[in-house]
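Technical note accompanying the year-one report. For the benefit of new consortium partners, we illustrate the data format agreed upon in the data management plan: each record pairs a sequence with a structure-token string. No post-processing was applied to the example shown here.
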Amino acid sequence: MLEFGKVVKYFDNGFGFIKCIQTDSALCNKEVFFHIKAVKKFESKLVEFSNGSTEDLYFWFTSKDGKKGKEVVEFWSEAENIPLEHTLTIVEKYAATLIKSDKMPAKVVSAPPSALKRIIERTLVQPAFVAKKVTNAERLSARHSLSLVKSEELSRLLIDMAEKNFRLSSELSKYITSNKLGHKYPNIAGIVTMTDEEKEWDFDGGFPKEIYRIICQELSLTDKGTSARAIGFTSYQDQKNEPDIIL
């Protein structure tokens, strides 16, 4: 738990005590031991405090249970330098207090110290705390290096077709063409040019190689095992955008 306190003692042999001054803390008014090894970066300030050059020395700190009671784990002199995982607990704690006070309007809740106020303000605008919901489309895009447009259509197709229980990829293609679903997946479905080394033909409702591979993998589809292979692809979207040829 993050605490706030005032250094009350520091000795030349490298240890001292900080007194917690947070009134709502279980450590309030208790002196917590610290060793210079844990707070080495503030050694010069501590030395100035011990020889009287600095009158007051305040730190944010975390502690742990040691052999002789609570011991400091780390110091921070500026709220902006405190790791975000520690500030989260503070914000959650004060949020709970505010909710409680809202239900008990007669009780006055004192405002947090200015340093704590800065932490809360920084936390509320810090985007790292907002857990962004990653969609299926975004996962597919990242996993297979697809554009978001294609991955969104692919995600939709996989959801739509999962309940059909197709076994063969040809069943899926036939379903798309017979139900005229090209408009739903215009960027990933279209006309595939096929060849079996003897002739070429166009296959309506097919997919380009990279999309075909993903669909078969995600829906556990197989092909008929023919020697035909795809040598070209025109999406329904590209086909729609082709200019009309006037003779």
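Partners are asked to follow this layout when depositing records. Residues 126-134 have pLDDT under 50 and may be disordered.
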